[in-house]
């Protein structure tokens, strides 16, 4: 936020990263002084207004950030929908970045501006070192700029076209962004903002000691040597302030990378430390210290803390609950400058439409190359691309796709093959003439839906079949990924309506848990599923098998489990909490608990094709 090491950090990190901010002529720094010079170059670029800018006051400016000419490698913006022919590039969502106390946002500019400028019309606010504006003046400047950009000609036209706009406030900028959002919201029933992004916001300032420490730090200016007219004087304020803040701003990983980059400088890799090297280090350190006094002198620091943070938090804290726009709070979990992680939790309780993104192991300089702010915004509640309005909700009937071949092979290898090896099933199918054949080759291939009706023993069929199952099946997520659906009349009806093949067990759970008794086909008294199949001209394929009675030794019947001490009551409760498998069956009518037992032969009978009934006749299905 303040120290020169904060401003130098992007240069340190960029020296070993693939940041797209590097120009074609950029060369890695070789000496400590090169690092300082590289920073000064970045600072000079940010001081420039650019080709398109708006001055709010003589010392407050908004500059347009041009997208990189050759695109950006950090974020594949091609993944997002291109503007329609009716929407020009100028109509991209508007994003306004508001920096922290340094007034420039140098860390965000190094790693975030390229990506943001690709997806948004990005404007960055600049607060110059000479600026002594009050909190209200800065907020008004942001408010007026937003309103001008939203409706430069006609407010009615803006409402019609609804320009999308967000404010991005980092650190102290988060306080300004919150206040501006409240001011914009107060002007109309509906806020013109589409979203608010708060990055390590200084809304937690009143829970820090900075309000006391900063005046003490600023008072070090009284220890400065007499003016000599020389620019190379290193003041106590510059040294102490730089050392304190450089220890608080970077996180551990950033500190390590800074140290490694310095030690790997070409001029420092030579064996031995000579006087020339020591002189280089001394001059680079002095130059870095001087930058604190140059870019954030003590009187400016004191002004911005007392007039911006102290006043600003007093203004907005009681009104934060009134911010209704979708808000994304981005914080580093290890912020040592402010309690940002706990502040995110507090803001989520206060802001009615907010969410948080906590970046693990990151400090106050959270917007480094490990975070993509563009991605975070686009996939948040803010929804600037209107995905939630335009995307079709997922339909389990029509939108389901067969899993990938890799997933199918894995399921067969891990689940199906072990069962086949253990039970050694033999399959038979029956043709139209009633002749039985080994295998399932006679399962009909017809246009229209197929309805497989059986008794829980079908093991292998051609084609894609959607199973309509009891809720027990959904304890395993693989059932859903392979197309299984909860057993409801609506799901079954829509499968038939859309021409898909379905597998149905009319007998329900009771049929699968018949225990030692004969294995009957428990069809319900009402056979509406047959009428539905007839309505959509489905081919019904009954299937059956030698039942579990013949292949499993049942040790304890389901009803007997309920009588067991200790576990009986728990088993009853489990059975009562399961939805009835059949449409016309109440919970208490079915025993939904399998017996305790210690392989399987499927037979497909003659198909029932072109059902000769009228599906509108209520009594017809009873005779099938």
From TrEMBL:
According to the lineage, what is the superkingdom?
Answer: Eukaryota
Show the SUPFAM superfamilies listed in the entry.
alpha/beta-Hydrolases
Q: Which residues form the signal peptide?
A: 1-24
Question: For the AB hydrolase-1 domain, which residue ranges apply?
Answer: 159-370
Q: Which GO terms describe its cellular component?
A: membrane
Question: Keywords of this protein's UniProt record, alphabetized?
Answer: Signal
Protein name as it appears in the record: AB hydrolase-1 domain-containing protein
Q: Source species, please?
A: Phaeodactylum tricornutum (strain CCAP 1055/1)
């Amino acid at each position: 936020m303040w120290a020169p090491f904060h401003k130098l950090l992007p240069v340190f990190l960029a020296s070993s990263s693939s940041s797209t901010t590097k120009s074609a002529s950029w060369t890695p720094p070789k000496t400590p002084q090169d690092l300082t010079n590289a920073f000064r170059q970045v600072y000079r670029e940010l001081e420039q207004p650019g080709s398109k800018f708006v001055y709010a006051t003589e010392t407050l400016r908004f500059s347009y950030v041009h997208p990189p000419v050759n695109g950006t490698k950090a974020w594949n913006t091609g993944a997002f929908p291109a503007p329609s022919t009716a929407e020009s590039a100028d109509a991209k969502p508007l994003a306004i970045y508001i920096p922290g106390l340094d007034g420039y946002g140098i860390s965000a500019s190094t790693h975030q501006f390229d990506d943001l400028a690709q997806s948004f019309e990005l404007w960055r606010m600049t607060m110059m070192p000479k600026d002594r504006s009050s909190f209200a003046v800065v907020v008004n400047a942001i408010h007026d700029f937003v309103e001008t950009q939203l409706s430069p000609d006609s407010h009615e036209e803006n409402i019609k076209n609804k320009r999308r706009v967000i404010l991005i406030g980092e650190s102290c900028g988060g306080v300004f962004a919150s206040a501006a959002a409240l001011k914009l919201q107060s002007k109309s029933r509906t806020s013109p903002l589409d979203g608010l992004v708060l990055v390590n916001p200084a809304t937690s300032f009143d829970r820090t000691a900075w309000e006391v420490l900063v005046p003490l730090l600023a008072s070090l200016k009284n220890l400065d040597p007499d003016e000599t007219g020389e620019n190379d004087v290193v003041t106590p304020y510059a040294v102490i302030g730089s050392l304190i803040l450089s220890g608080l701003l970077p996180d551990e990983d950033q500190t390590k990378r800074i140290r490694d980059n310095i030690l790997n400088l070409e001029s420092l890799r030579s064996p031995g430390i000579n006087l020339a090297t020591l002189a280089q280090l001394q001059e680079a350190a002095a130059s870095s210290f001087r930058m604190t006094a140059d870019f954030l002198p003590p009187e400016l620091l004191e002004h911005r803390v007392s007039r911006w943070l102290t006043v600003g938090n007093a203004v907005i804290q009681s009104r934060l609950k009134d911010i209704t726009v979708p808000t994304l709070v981005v914080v580093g979990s290890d912020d040592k400058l402010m309690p940002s992680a706990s502040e995110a939790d507090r803001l989520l309780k206060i802001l009615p439409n907010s969410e948080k993104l906590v970046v693990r192991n990151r400090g106050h300089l959270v917007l480094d190359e490990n975070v993509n702010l563009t991605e975070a915004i686009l996939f948040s509640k803010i929804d600037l691309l209107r995905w939630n309005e335009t995307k079709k909700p997922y339909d389990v009937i029509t939108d389901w796709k067969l899993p990938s071949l890799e997933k199918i092979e894995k399921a067969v290898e891990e689940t199906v093959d072990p069962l086949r090896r253990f039970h050694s099933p033999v399959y038979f199918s029956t043709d139209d003439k009633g002749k039985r054949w080994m295998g399932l080759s006679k399962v009909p291939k017809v246009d229209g839906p197929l309805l497989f009706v059986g008794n829980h023993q079908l093991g292998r069929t051609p084609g894609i079949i959607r199973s309509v199952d009891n809720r027990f099946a959904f304890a395993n997520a693989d059932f859903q990924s392979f197309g299984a659906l909860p057993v409801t009349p609506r799901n079954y009806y829509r499968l038939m309506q859309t021409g898909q093949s379905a597998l149905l067990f009319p007998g329900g759970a009771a049929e699968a848990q018949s225990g030692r008794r004969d294995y009957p086909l428990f069809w319900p008294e009402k056979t509406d599923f047959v009428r539905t199949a007839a309505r959509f001209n489905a081919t019904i394929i009954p299937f059956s098998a030698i039942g579990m009675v013949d292949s499993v030794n049942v040790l304890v019947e389901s009803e007997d489990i309920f009588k067991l001490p200790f576990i009986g009551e728990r088993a009853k409760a489990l059975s009562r909490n399961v939805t009835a498998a059949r449409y016309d069956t109440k919970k208490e009518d079915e025993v939904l608990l399998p017996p305790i037992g210690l392989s399987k032969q499927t037979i497909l009978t003659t198909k029932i094709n072109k059902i000769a009934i009228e599906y509108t006749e209520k009594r017809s299905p009873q005779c099938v």
